[in-house]
């Protein structure tokens, strides 16, 4: 089974997808005139927007929900894996993906807002909705919805749970081995699993509001605490920082693990972490209550910076400064190019990060990574559930019934248990397949949308003109030649009636 998963992963994550992700980011960066740089100040202002309603959540809550998906295991264990398999140069390519991917995140999240709908008292949107309404290709919409349900409901939750289990083992040890249907499992892993499953069940039955209220508190708090610890490590070793940045940049092009490994692992882990181009971010973006779709597009572009430039860089600096890492070559398999720590240390886990903090803060640092991973992973599982739920809601227009959503909840909980007790490499490979499937469909789709209608670019231009003119910000899709934006058309009609 593991050999099959690895073979499928190699096909999905061929060099074609890697360069397609980079190319899409560059494409939208040029067309938006690098909006991710020009509108940085506006992004920060929009974060403070407190608009919300009984139907939609605020921009900050939408950011928190999307960050709960972006800031997860990929920021801690994923960065460690990128260094372990791709060398320090992989971090440079993670930065490139984040910078270019911010424009992709703008485009896909703006599209999510333009073509969202109101269903059962909630805003819903995402790639399935904009492929249906903008491209008018229902088959592509259904294909994405099915792939998102499989990826977020089956393939991805296990990655998050697996990292939590490994982190608990790193801190507390295995504990007493307990015989289960999955094999012998340490008692501490089972305790962590029980906590996750109980709290997960409580929250996912409460809808997007409960998810948003939880994530808007937990995500900023844990991310800030994690970055503070990283900054302490940096300041203690300030003299080493220039050398570390030099190592990252030079290794990006003369990679210890090979150029292909550096760019491959950097792009793969970058996209896994910041989700730009995956098509996952637009789901939370569509749930936000905003005056103009471009506003949420810019907020989501900023979230890519938070994820990669801040949190992933914090992890990389801690690992590289303290030299708590190994680099393994692809051929011959298992041969170390660099070995600084025990050869038995699992590269696909958070062990490098935990050892880096342990070397500075002792047991507290190691425990903090375990706690951070628990919350990062848990909130990411919540985000995955919401994405799966949204796509089930889309498919419900064709297949009515409440059973599919109940099944998704049960499957996610099973996959959390399955991921917790299996090996990291195997679970990461399954997760990569899920990410790759969505990325292929979404990136091809949003590039096709540009050539068909260019709605995200027209939206940005309209927002910039309104900001320059001053006054009330509104969105009129008909004036911009955008068709099938029914939610916004109805809102304009209602505003006109209210003025009479």
TrEMBL record:
Intracellular or extracellular location(s): Cell inner membrane; Cell membrane
Any single Gene Ontology cellular-component annotation: plasma membrane
PROSITE patterns: NA_ALANINE_SYMP
Transmembrane segments: 12-31, 139-159, 186-205, 217-238, 244-267, 302-321, 367-387, 399-420, 426-453
Pfam families on file: Na_Ala_symp (PF01235)
Membrane topology: Multi-pass membrane protein
Keywords for this protein: Cell inner membrane, Cell membrane, Membrane, Symport, Transmembrane, Transmembrane helix, Transport
GO molecular function: amino acid:sodium symporter activity
The UniProt record lists the keyword Acetylation: no
Keyword Translocase among UniProt keywords: no
PANTHER family: AGSS FAMILY TRANSPORTER, SODIUM-ALANINE (PTHR30330), SODIUM_PROTON-DEPENDENT ALANINE CARRIER PROTEIN YRBD-RELATED (PTHR30330:SF7)
Family statement drawn from the similarity comment of this UniProt entry: Belongs to the alanine or glycine:cation symporter (AGCS) (TC 2.A.25) family.
Record's protein name: Alanine or glycine:cation symporter, AGCS family
Biological source species: Pseudoalteromonas lipolytica
Organism lineage: Bacteria, Pseudomonadati, Pseudomonadota, Gammaproteobacteria, Alteromonadales
């Amino acid at each position: 089974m593991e050999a099959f998963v690895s073979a499928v992963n190699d096909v999905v994550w061929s060099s074609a997808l890697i360069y397609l992700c980079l190319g899409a980011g560059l494409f939208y960066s040029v067309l938006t005139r690098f909006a991710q740089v020009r509108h940085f100040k506006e992004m920060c202002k929009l974060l403070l927007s407190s608009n919300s309603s009984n139907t939609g959540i605020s921009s900050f809550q939408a950011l928190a929900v999307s960050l709960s998906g972006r800031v997860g295991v990929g920021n801690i264990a994923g960065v460690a894996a990128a260094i372990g398999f791709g060398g320090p140069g992989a971090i440079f390519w993670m930065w490139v993906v984040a910078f270019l991917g911010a424009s992709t995140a703008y485009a896909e999240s703006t599209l999510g807002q333009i073509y969202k709908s109101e269903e059962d008292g909630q805003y819903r949107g995402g790639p399935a909705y904009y492929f249906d309404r903008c491209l008018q290709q229902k088959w592509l919409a259904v294909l994405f919805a099915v792939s998102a349900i499989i990826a977020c409901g089956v393939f991805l939750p296990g990655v998050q749970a697996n990292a939590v289990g490994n982190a608990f083992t790193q801190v507390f040890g295995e504990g007493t081995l307990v015989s289960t249907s999955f094999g012998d499992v340490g008692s501490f892993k089972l305790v962590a699993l029980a906590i996750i499953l109980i709290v997960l069940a409580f929250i996912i039955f409460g809808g997007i509001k409960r998810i948003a209220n939880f994530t808007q508190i937990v995500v900023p708090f844990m991310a800030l605490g994690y970055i503070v610890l990283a900054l302490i490590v940096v300041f203690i070793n300030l003299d080493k920082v220039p050398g570390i940045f030099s190592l990252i940049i030079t290794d990006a092009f003369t990679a210890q693990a090979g150029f292909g490994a550096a760019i491959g692992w950097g792009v793969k882990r970058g996209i896994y972490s910041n989700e730009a181009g995956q098509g996952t971010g637009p789901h939370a973006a569509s749930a936000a209550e905003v005056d103009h779709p471009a506003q949420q597009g810019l907020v989501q572009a900023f979230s890519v910076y938070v994820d990669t430039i801040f949190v992933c860089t914090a992890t990389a600096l801690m690992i590289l400064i303290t030299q708590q890492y190994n680099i393994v070559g692809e051929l011959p398999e298992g041969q170390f190019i660099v070995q600084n720590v025990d050869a038995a240390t699992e590269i696909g886990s958070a062990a490098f990060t935990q050892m880096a903090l342990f070397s500075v803060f002792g047991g507290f640092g190691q425990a903090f990574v375990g706690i951070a991973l628990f919350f990062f992973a848990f909130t990411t599982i919540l985000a995955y559930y919401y994405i799966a739920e949204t796509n089930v809601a889309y498919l419900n227009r064709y297949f009515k019934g409440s059973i599919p959503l109940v099944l998704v909840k049960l499957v996610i909980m099973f996959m959390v248990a399955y991921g917790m007790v299996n090996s990291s490499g195997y679970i990461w490979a399954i997760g990569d397949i899920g990410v790759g499937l969505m990325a292929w469909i979404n990136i091809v789709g949003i590039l096709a949308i540009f050539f068909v209608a260019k709605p995200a670019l027209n939206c940005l231009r309209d927002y910039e003109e309104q900001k320059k003119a001053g006054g009330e910000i509104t969105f009129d899709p008909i004036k911009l030649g955008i068709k099938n934006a029914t939610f916004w058309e109805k809102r304009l009609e209602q505003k006109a009636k209210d003025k009479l």
